[in-house]
Design a protein that fits this description.
Elements lengths: L4 E2 L7 E2 L2 H7 L10 E4 L2 E7 L8 E2 L3 E5 L4 E3 L5 E3 L8 H11 L4 E6 L7 E2 L4 E17 L2 E10 L30 E3 L6 E3 L18 E2 L2 E2 L8 H5 L35 E3 L4 H5 L8 E3 L33 E3 L7 E7 L3 E7 L2 H5 L4 H10 L22 E6 L10 E2 L6 H20 L9 E8 L4 E4 L6 E11 L2 E7 L1 H5 L30 H12 L5 H13 L10 E5 L4 E5 L1 H6 E7 L3 E10 L26
Parallel strand pairs: 1-10, 4-9, 22-23
Antiparallel strand pairs: 2-11, 3-4, 5-6, 6-12, 7-8, 9-11, 11-12, 13-14, 15-16, 17-18, 19-20, 20-21, 21-29, 22-24, 24-31, 25-30, 26-29, 26-31, 27-28, 27-30
Helix pairs in contact: 9-10
The structure holds 2-oxoglutaric acid and fe (ii) ion.
């Protein structure tokens, strides 16, 4: 029944949905977590449901914990499950922003429990802040990092200040010189500021005197030192944000620029709150851009020599392929064989292939001209519900369940460019599979992905039970890098650890059938145990227990990428082998503004509804069939 105070003003921008927030705010491009960091710096911060104990906000100062390393304790509060060190990624990036005086944007989420005020929206942009202090607190048996932010513009009233509150003190009347007491620790000789009213303590976690007032451990309840809350940093014109707090794309757009595909081409207001405020008139603001297709040459980098086959330089850190310039000429064929798993064939195109009529250059323009119905779909497994894929997708042919659920259009409705791409992919699939002596199943499904600048596809596999063992992808447009790595479970021999309540490393369950892949962790030990088990020398229990003991010696980690492919415009990649999708995963990161990836599969007919079977039927016209040149 508490009467909530109302806040003083309106945020400069807001969103009711996290995806929209992350898509439009350049300093907060993250769908999860409280902190956006990139290139080693923290750029933006979200204050929401759980800032940890002693989270503090007033009109000009925010004190909160740095997320990460946390699980919920018995009372449902987030507590660090291990020490957060100064060299953790999150701590390092906030310290980097502190040292370089980089302004950090802040967002106020309505699930906070701190301010006694009602926030107008789910996510409310606050203002630019500067990082003034980063220190460590003891929490339970661990330590975690805390940060103090101070509003950059102290002259202006903060919109989140309580309604009717006094305007901020004019700058000329403020005291910028008084700072809270700071003392050098006699143990570690490092300075720590007096953060708490209860007493000065050393805030260096590696010091013996950390978190002690005098000789005794600090009390669990602590109060902030008023001088720590009230000090202010002098304004400094040198400290400038490197983008606007609320970007305004519309007036800066030049519709005639060939570069238009780098920006999103359409805006639509999705704010339903205006509807309630204006008595049901939902805002109809919409702006659709005419986008002219960009030619492939716009994306070329200087190192690409037209009409010459690129020299391949292979990085010894990754698998070196077999090179064959003859059998699929004019393509160069690179084959990566994974024993007992499958193979990956990379068909390297060149300018002669790309510039032929109906070849990759024409397909790239053709795909931009068609309204393919490319959309971003919600990810099915995501920590934050409603997170959309970081790429656009549309499916043609037999429907199947992709990482996300994508509606499938019949090949009968597909534009010519799609069928032409399908012709190329069928040929590549056939060539790669037959040369390996396997049976060729013609693809009946084609997934088109579209990537604008900054988009990508994260690690995943294509091993859906309804799909055959072969996938073929045609790359068009921007150059990209494909990474292939062993899945966590197969690399480590066990699933991810499930619980580490007591601080010990607990591995998840051991693999039922461990293929002991070449290059996996503890390979020799795992192979030796497997051989003893298979020879009947040890029982299943002994085999499992020995593996558990073995895995407890080292913490599991992600496998490093085993294969790296540089995918250029016109290149094709065929992956073959059911086990390849079972044991390995891949991700693709484009480097430039616009890229399409068209991937064809064979969907097993018994996995498709009878009524939808015909969606996968097609007949290619002679000009859609690819002759391999
Ligand atoms: O963008 C690419 O080249 C890869 C696409 C992919 O992995 C997929 O569609 O499953
Ligand atoms: Fe894939």
């Amino acid at each position: 029944d508490q009467v909530l105070e109302q806040v003083h003003g309106e945020p400069p921008a807001w969103a009711e949905n996290r995806q929209q927030l992350c898509d439009s705010i350049p300093w907060f491009h993250c769908t999860q977590g409280a902190m956006y960091h990139s290139e080693g710096f923290c750029w933006g911060f979200l204050i929401d449901a759980d800032g940890g104990t002693r989270t503090y906000i007033d009109d000009e100062v925010i004190i909160t914990r740095i997320g990460g390393c946390c699980t919920k304790d018995s009372e449902g509060n987030l507590a660090p499950q291990k020490n957060q060190e100064a060299d953790s990624t999150l701590a390092r990036s906030i310290i980097a922003s502190l040292k370089s005086e980089l302004p950090v944007g802040s967002i106020f989420g309505s699930k906070h429990k701190i301010l006694n005020g009602d926030l107008p929206h789910r996510y409310n942009i606050m203002a630019w802040f500067r990082v003034t202090n980063v220190w460590f607190e003891r929490i339970g048996t661990n330590h975690g990092a805390k940060v103090r932010f101070e509003k950059l513009d102290l002259a202006e009233n903060s919109w989140w200040a309580a309604k009717g509150s006094a305007p901020p003190m004019p700058l000329e009347l403020r005291d910028f010189d008084t700072k809270p007491q700071s003392l050098k620790c006699e143990g570690c000789s490092k300075e720590s500021i007096r953060v708490y009213e209860d007493g000065w303590m050393c805030l260096q976690p590696e010091c013996d005197r950390f978190w002690k007032i005098g000789n005794v451990s600090s009390p669990p309840e602590l109060t902030f030192n008023p001088a720590f809350l009230s000090f202010r940093s002098r304004s400094d014109d040198e400290i400038r944000p490197n983008c606007s707090l609320v970007p305004d794309h519309l007036p800066t757009l030049d519709e005639d620029a060939t570069d238009i595909s780098t920006s999103r081409g359409a805006w639509k207001c999705s704010d339903d709150s205006t509807g309630t405020q204006t008595g049901g008139n939902v805002c109809s603001f919409e702006r659709l851009m005419t986008m002219s297709p960009i030619p492939r040459q716009v994306l070329l980098d200087d190192s690409e020599q037209p009409s010459m086959r690129r020299e391949m330089v292979f990085d010894r850190k990754f698998m070196i392929p077999e090179i064959d310039d003859v059998s699929l000429s004019p393509y160069r064929k690179l084959t990566y064989k994974l024993d007992g798993v499958g193979f990956i064939t990379h068909f390297v195109a060149n300018a002669d292939i790309n510039s032929r009529p109906n070849g990759p250059d024409d397909l790239f323009i053709g795909l931009q001209r068609e309204d393919l119905g490319l959309k971003r779909f919600p990810l099915s497994s995501s920590l934050v519900a409603g997170t959309l894929t970081a790429h656009f997708a549309v499916n043609h042919g037999s429907p199947y369940k992709y990482v996300v659920s994508v509606l499938s259009k019949a090949f009968g409705e597909a534009p010519g460019v799609i069928l032409r791409a399908l012709g190329r992919l069928s040929r590549a699939t056939e060539q790669a599979v037959i040369s390996a002596g396997d049976m060729y199943m013609p693809p009946n499904e084609l997934l088109t992905l579209g990537y604008f600048e900054g988009m990508k596809i994260g690690y995943h596999d294509d091993g859906e039970s309804s799909l055959g063992p072969t996938t073929a992808t045609l790359s068009l447009g921007a150059k990209s890098t494909m990474w292939i790595r062993m899945k966590y479970t197969h690399f480590n021999g066990h699933t991810r650890r499930v619980d580490a309540g007591d601080g010990k490393v607990v591995s998840g369950s051991v693999l039922q059938e461990d293929p002991v892949l070449k290059g996996c962790r503890l390979e020799d030990e795992r192979r030796a145990l497997k051989e003893r088990f298979e020879a009947g020398e040890i029982s299943q229990d002994e085999y499992d227990n020995s593996r558990r003991t073995l895995f407890a010696t080292q913490k599991g980690k992600q496998a490093p990428p085993a294969i790296k492919l540089d995918l250029h415009h016109g290149d094709l990649v065929v992956m073959h082998g059911e086990n390849l999708q079972r044991y390995y995963e891949h991700s693709v990161v484009p480097e430039n503004k616009l890229r399409f990836a068209l991937t064809a599969w064979y969907v097993k007919p018994d996995h498709v509804d009878a009524a939808e079977i015909e969606k996968g039927n097609f007949t290619l016209t002679p000009d859609q069939i690819y002759d391999g040149k």
